[in-house]
Amino acid sequence: MERLIWIAALLGLAALIFAALYFVQKKRIERLTERIEDFLVTGKNPLEYSVREDSIAPIHNAAAELENRILLSREQVRDELRRTSTLTADISHQLKTPLASLKLFCELDEGAHMEAQLGQIERMEKLIYSLLRLERLCADGYDFVFEDHEVGQIIREAWESVCPVWPGRTLKIDGSAHIRCDAKWMGEAFLNLLKNACEHTDKGGKIHIRLEMTETTFYATVEDNGGGVPQKDLPHLFERFYRAGDKKENGGAGIGLSIVQEIVRRHHGDIRAENTGKGLKFTISMPVMNLVRT
Fold first, then answer.
1. pTM, rounded to two decimals
2. Distance between alpha carbon 211 and the CA centroid of its chain, in Å?
3. Which member of 37, 54, 202, 279 lies 3.0 to 4.6 Å from 224 by CB, making a disulfide possible if both were Cys?
């Protein structure tokens, strides 16, 4: 009987030791997962190599190696993008001086086509400015500040600057979401999407934005009732300088949607476009690890 008691006690002790070890290992895996997710979001604080002799160390060191390779790859890409951005900036800078001179000469001459000439010069200046911003975005030349923000408020602020330029359009927002983002740049993304929707609709046009959060993803859809774009244009909407359908006839530079795509990518998300029965719809999706749960 006494022997059975000892065996039971030893088994109980072994079970406690196993449970304690399991709990410690589980907590280490959770902390490792949090560190990896934080690195993927911020790109900072990569893992250091572990010198422990246990079953978690190989996983830890494999993750550390992957993070180091990601950092090296990012730096190589940034170097290449910086060279491209510098070249674009130099070309753009060289264009600004002759454009300013042309503008001055047009104003002095006051010819019959002065207004048209000044309009084209102004369009060129806007194009250069937009191109510079896009290239700098692609070259990771702006610091993004990721904080918790309410998306509806960001959209409403963007709409306040859009609606006076395109009167007669209405905006409806369904749903709500708090996301971890850079409010300034996310606001610019929605600003460009709202501009695009207004350009594709006439007076009385309606723009509908839906916000949704699941356990893994944040979604935002921006849909207008302007009839959409030709199907052949859909694959090219995010290409720089591409202007679909009737936008070829307006003053658009064809860079706005490229900027939107780059901003969404900087938030580790994706954006796609499709025609609906009413008009054109853009869908933004972002992984939940970038978000603050509510």
1. 0.64
2. 16
3. 279
**In a domain? residue 234:** yes
Within a domain: residue 39? no
Furthest CA-CA distance within the chain: 115
pLDDT score, position 257: 93
180 contacts: CB under 8 Å, gap ≥ 6: 41, 146, 147, 148, 149, 290, 291, 292
Compute CA distances 246 → 60, 72, 252, whole Å. 54, 44, 10
Instruction: Name which of 38-42, 180-184, 254-258 the model is least confident about.
Output: 38-42
Q: Is 156 exposed, middle or buried (0-12, 13-18, 19+ CB in 10 A)?
A: middle
In our burial notation (b when 16+ CB lie closer than 10 A, e otherwise), range 77-107 reads eeeebeeebeebbeebeeeeeeeeeebeebe
Residue 237 and residue 273 in contact, taking contact as beta carbons nearer than 8 Å: yes
Q: What gap in Å lies between CA 197 and CA 225, rounded to an integer?
A: 8
185 CB contacts (<8 Å, ≥6 apart)?
142, 144, 263, 266
Q: Residue 293's Cα: distance from chain center in Å?
A: 19
CATH label of the domain that carries residue 273:
3.30.565.10
Six-digit token string for 278: 């009413």
